[in-house]
Structures are given as structure tokens and as C-alpha cells.
Design brief:
This protein is mainly α. The protein has helices at residues 4-8, 27-54, 61-71, 77-97, 101-119, 131-146, 165-185. Helix 5 (101-119) packs parallel to helix 7. The radius of gyration is 19 Å and the shape is elongated.
Amino acid sequence: MPSLTSTLAPLSRPGSASGDQAHASTPHAYDVGLLLLRVVLGLTMAAHGSQKLFGWFGGGGLDGTGAFFTMSGYPSGKAFAVVAGLTETLGGLGLAIGLLTPLMGAAVVGTMVNALAVKGTGSFFAPAGIEYEVLLTAGAAALALTGPGRIAVDRFLPGLKTHRLAYGASAVALGLVVAGITLLLRK
């Protein structure tokens, strides 16, 4: 039975002497995969936030979204609409370009936890299900934990060139705490 240390050991690089070469992947494969995930998830969230802020893509804008937030029990619905819209738009754009990735991922996680709480747990699958929100939340958390890969703005920022699991875990914890505080304000 493999030990925990060997299970968590980094995957070997092609041409290295250790590890199972049949399952090794190149760093480029990881980077391109993370880029694809970041861009799709990030732009999806940014578009969703722009629905709240500007009414784009059939959204309610600040007035409609504010009314929804008020109806959902948030005090000062319009202010919460601004916060949610900015968090989704800026968090999504940050993820898409790989800027401050752990924090941007955590911002999306916090917003989506609130979306899950508002939507409820009536069903997992569409049309009234929560699978879409769960997928966005998990994807954002995964990006916060793994980091953006090498094709990202973070690679050029001092202190963010290397990603540590602790950075991502701390950021996700922060996003969950802020989401919890926000939910406590809800009636």
C-alpha cells in the first residue's frame, strides 16, 4: 500500500528517473488546462456580474438585482447588488487573466456560497437545481488551491510567482468566512 508521502509526491517529469512515466504530464499540459479553466470560469463569472451591474446579457441591472436581493432577505438590496456584481465581475476578470488568483477564486467562492444559500436545496439538477452554482464554486476553489499555472499575470508579480497550497487554502477560508458573515446579515 503506498504511503501518504508517496501519494502526495509531485508527478515526475518526462525523462526523470522516478515515478510512473506512463502517468506523467508535462508542465505545459497543466498550464494550458488551468488557462482554459480560468478563462471559461472567469469570463462566465464576469458576464454574470455585468448582468447585475449593467443589465447586460438580459440581466436586471442594479435596480432589478437590488430588488431581488431585498426580496431574498438582504438588507440594503441595492448595496448588496453592487458588492455581488463587483465581486463577480472583478473576481471573474482576475481569474481569467490569472491576477491574484487565490483571492479572486475566494471572492467567487464567497459569492457563490451566497447564491447557493439563496437558491436553496430543493433539487440538485436543472431547471431549479444548484448544479451550476456548485460547479462554479468548486472550479473557483480549485483554482484558488492550485494557482493559475504559468500562463498568468501572477507569474510576473513578486511574491506570487510561486503558488503555495497554504495561500489558496487561506484565501478560500477567507472567502467562506466573508460569505458566512454576509449570510448572517440576511433575514
